[in-house]
Design brief:
Blueprint lengths: L11 H35 L9
Length: 55
């Protein structure tokens, strides 16, 4: 495959790869944050409740 020299936004192949990579990285970041929140929720459920909540 020959890719003509020039700006990356003029190259459909590069733009496709960049777009796919950006989506995959964003999806991974969202998944990691979601899983982290679930772990925190599980740990908080296991904590014994005292009479007063601390701030």
């Amino acid at each position: 495959m020959y890719i003509m020299p020039g700006s990356t936004w003029e190259n459909e192949f590069v733009e496709s790869v960049n777009g796919t990579m950006a989506r995959e990285l964003l999806n991974r970041e969202i998944l990691i944050r979601y899983m982290g929140q679930k772990i925190v929720q599980i740990r908080l459920r296991k904590l014994p409740l005292s009479g007063k909540l601390r701030r």
